[in-house]
Specification:
By secondary structure, this protein is of the alpha/beta class. It is 39% helix and 14% strand. It folds into 2 domains: 121 residues, Aspartate Aminotransferase, domain 1; 222 residues, Type I PLP-dependent aspartate aminotransferase-like (Major domain) (Aspartate Aminotransferase, domain 2, 3-Layer(aba) Sandwich), CATH 3.40.640. The protein has 15 helices and 12 strands. α4 runs parallel beside α5. The radius of gyration is 21 Å and the shape is globular. The N and C termini lie far apart (49 Å). The protein binds 4'-deoxy-4'-aminopyridoxal-5'-phosphate and glutamine. The site of 4'-deoxy-4'-aminopyridoxal-5'-phosphate has 14 residues, from α4 and α9.
């Protein structure tokens, strides 16, 4: 080390993301990859043509800081049609570099040193490091049972005068469960008369199955007045690599988020935004998504019916949790590594998202895959005794 005074890491103990680890291992061992959450089928050609058109017609310089105005207006229309609340496209919507950037920007904008942020576990892996990087203290609450439900009594007990933010995620990664209307109402009544900000991660809002409904924070006035809601076009339009999403929030919150947004990325890729503005004009492009992924979920579960993996069907997202305790007593990390090396199939061990990495013998499978991949995956899983 050339430094005479070694620096102190701001993220001590933080390891490489499980998504990079498993994807790299999958590549190295030539394994079928059902680990990191991304589709292995094509993005709609029409959307790609719209990007090409945007590039050819000259949208190749910086976009406006808060996003292409036409796109923000389409987002406003979509939210109003789906959830009945009208945001102001000028002041309350920002196009971001994916939900990851929204999460980081919102936490950075509002969490001061010593502030507490309630996080439900298992949790998506960027919440806690983003809180810590800002000097905040993650206050962890375990989701309970096979339904990963919230113990609202525990939430009430963990709210203190230092609680600055609560982060929720519905549909939930990695469990594939949803928050109910009654959950949202309980949260609304708990937050009433507090200054707590809600960060609502709704990146899988359109991936809802069976007769379930997505309960957005936007639909509950007592939540919407304090909520930053984040969405991801990557998840919705099968192009996670384009890393584009957006957030909505009341003007006074959005003003602060934009201060961080302009420092970190300033603005988001221009031709993609032009294309999304056109593409969002056709609601079928996102309204049919639930049905599309439900078929994949059903196909996957049907194909592995005879296997020793078991689990409750996912209610949303494109993930299925499966319990493997009938197969082995190995912990989930060891088992996931063996699955890659011996059986050539990659998954995500759920313990990495749990408090103290508790192992419940569960693996997460991404079923956003072609039928051919799902068939191959099932052939492998059915053989594991
Ligand atoms: N939140 C959750 C729950 C996720 O699963 C993901 C992964 N896509 C993100 C946020 C980040 O989304 P994006 O790729 O748009 O940054
Ligand atoms: N959201 C994706 C998942 O849960 C991964 C995103 C990432 O790799 N950061 O698998």
């Amino acid at each position: 080390m050339y430094l005479s005074n070694p620096f102190e890491s701001k993220l001590q103990g933080e390891k490489a993301s499980i998504f990079s680890i498993m994807s790299q291992m999958a590549g190295k061992h030539n394994a079928l990859d059902l680990s990191q959450g991304f589709p292995n089928f094509k993005t709609d050609d029409h959307l790609k043509e719209l990007v090409t058109k945007a590039m050819k017609t000259g949208h190749n310089q910086y976009a406006p800081m808060a996003g292409v105005l036409e796109l923000r207006h389409e987002i406003v229309k979509k939210i109003e049609a789906l959830y009945g609340k009208k945001y102001d496209g000028n002041t309350e919507v920002t196009v971001t570099h994916g939900a990851t950037q929204t999460i980081y920007s919102a936490i950075t904008a509002f969490v001061h040193k010593g502030d507490e942020v309630i996080v439900f576990k298992p949790a998506y892996d960027t919440y806690e490091p983003s809180i810590k990087l800002n000097g905040g203290i993650p206050v962890l609450i375990q989701l309970k049972g096979i339904d990963f439900s919230i113990d609202w009594q525990e939430v009430e007990e963990k709210i203190t005068s230092k609680t600055r933010m609560i982060i929720i995620n519905t549909p939930h990664n990695p469990s594939g469960t949803l928050l109910s209307e009654s959950d949202m109402k309980k949260l609304e009544s708990l937050l009433k008369n507090t200054d707590i900000i809600l960060l609502s991660d709704e990146v899988y809002e359109h991936l809802i199955f069976d007769d379930n409904k997505h309960h957005s924070a936007v639909s509950f006035p007592g939540l919407a007045e304090r909520a930053v809601v984040c969405a991801s076009f990557g998840k919705t339009f099968h192009n996670t690599g384009w890393k584009t999403g957006y957030c909505v929030a009341p003007e006074e919150l959005m003003r602060e988020i934009r201060k961080v947004h302009q420092l970190t990325v300033f603005c988001v890729n221009h031709p993609m935004q032009q294309a999304y503005a056109e593409y969002l004009k056709i609601p079928e492009n996102y309204l049919n998504l639930g049905k599309f992924y439900q078929q994949k979920r059903d196909r996957f579960l049907e194909l592995i019916e005879g296997s020793k993996f078991k689990g409750k069907a996912s209610a949303g997202t494109y993930f299925q949790l499966l319990d493997y305790s009938d197969i082995t007593g190995e912990n989930d990390v060891e088992f996931s590594h063996r699955l890659i090396k011996q059986y050539k199939i990659a998954t995500i061990p759920v313990s990495v998202f749990n408090i103290d990495n508790k192992d419940n013998k569960q693996l997460r499978f991404c079923f956003a895959k072609t039928d051919e991949t799902l068939v191959k995956a099932a052939e492998i899983l059915n053989k594991i005794q």
